[in-house]
Design a protein that fits this description.
By secondary structure, the chain is an alpha+beta fold. It contains 12 helices and 7 strands. Strands 2-1-3-7-6-5-4 form a 7-stranded mixed β-sheet, sandwiched between helices. A hairpin with a 4-residue loop joins strand 4 and strand 5.
Length: 374
């Protein structure tokens, strides 16, 4: 039971907070100043503790220590080039297809099993703070974390300017009992860390959708028609939700495989906790699918309101045109300049015609107003 509590404390160190209320969240994208290469950190772990070293370890030196004394090596890389990754791939016997995916990035979330390793791709999501949603607002920013899991090694390849794993590494190092479970414990911690990020972003996106929904359905003018929401803003938010969905939906099957199917490289004590990750991911997926459907409804409602507003304007224009048609007709009749028109020589002709015209216009106006056209 102590291991269970430690595991949850490591991967969930604090309660989840909406990203809107945490503008100070920062993401470490720098490499270790002592290492000019793509290697951010390289360390050997034995019996759950990080093995001290006199200086920065190279992946080759770390692997030699592991083969000699046991334990496992955890190597973190940030956007390595093909040349920078070639030596590490050769040292650890990584499959060429997985290496190609890790270097090129822009991969779909997935889990691939090779002879001596697992290759897992995660899409990281970061909520982009903004004061007000516009037609050009970026709501979510994506990155990638690729993980190579072996018997005695764990390699992370990170792409993008967010999603640093440094804090997670430190938390794991503070829990030797968990870290002693080996690379599979690190894989679970990263999976849970990524999914927790999804949950926080989902809360922030929900706030954006609520704001747009309130604007669409709040009364803006007479008749309850809101005209302050640009459809482009809703469409932009829908595009960002679609990007979010592309990160979440494909990951569900890999998490289910990790939780349900026995694997040589996954410790049985750790495997059961992937079930918890898969459950949280399924809830996020349902939430994101709900976002998509809700935005469809909001967009349709906004377009319907725009159509209603246009119809209202056209009715008003038509009503005034009907009123103006009466004096136009009268003026047209008396502007034909016929010689024998009795009213032209009648003393009261002008005031009578003007009075009749005004009465007809007033009657049409009252009728149209009573019917809601004006």
């Amino acid at each position: 039971m102590s291991m269970i509590r430690d595991l949850r404390a490591v991967v969930r160190p604090s309660s989840r907070v909406s990203l809107r209320k945490d503008p100070g969240t920062s993401y470490d994208t720098t490499r270790d100043p002592a290492s000019p290469s793509a290697v951010v950190d390289c360390a050997v772990y034995r019996n759950g503790a990080r093995v001290p070293s006199a200086g920065p370890l190279s992946p080759q030196e770390a692997m030699r220590q592991v083969r000699r004394d046991g334990g496992f090596v955890w190597i973190g890389l940030h956007e390595p080039t093909e040349a920078e990754f070639a030596g590490i791939a050769g040292e650890f016997g990584l499959h060429p297809l997985a290496v190609e995916d890790a270097v090129q990035a822009h991969q779909r979330p997935k889990l691939e099993r090779y002879d001596d390793s697992l290759f897992t791709v995660f899409k990281t999501i970061h909520y982009v703070e903004h004061d007000r949603l516009t037609a050009n607002s970026e709501v979510v920013e994506t990155g990638e974390v690729m993980c190579f899991t072996g018997r005695d090694f764990f390699i992370t390849v990170r792409h993008g300017g967010q999603g640093s794993l440094r804090a997670l590494r430190h938390r794991l190092q503070d829990d030797p009992e968990l870290l002693a479970k080996g690379p599979s414990a690190v894989l679970h911690a990263i999976a849970d860390h990524v999914v927790d990020g999804y949950i926080a972003v989902a809360h922030a996106v929900q706030d954006d959708i609520d704001d747009v929904e309130t604007e669409v359905f709040s009364p803006g003018r007479k008749g309850g028609v809101s005209r302050g929401v640009d459809s482009a803003r809703i469409y932009q938010l829908k595009r960002e939700v679609l990007e979010f969905k592309r990160a979440v939906a494909p990951l569900l099957r890999p998490m289910q495989l990790l939780s349900e199917r026995p694997m040589r490289l996954i410790d049985p004590d750790i495997q059961k906790y992937f079930r918890d990750v898969a459950d949280h991911l399924a809830r996020v997926q349902e939430q994101v699918m709900g976002f998509d459907e809700l935005l469809n409804s909001i967009l349709q409602a906004n377009l319907a309101q725009a159509s209603v507003a246009q119809n209202e304007d056209m009715r008003k224009i038509t009503a005034w045109a009907a009123i103006i048609a009466v004096p136009t007709m009268v003026c047209g009749v008396y502007g034909m300049n016929f010689e024998h028109m009795p009213e032209l020589h009648w003393r009261y002709g002008y005031p009578v015609i003007m009075g009749v015209t005004a009465a007809i216009c007033l009657g049409i106006h009252r009728t149209l107003k009573r019917n809601g056209w004006l």
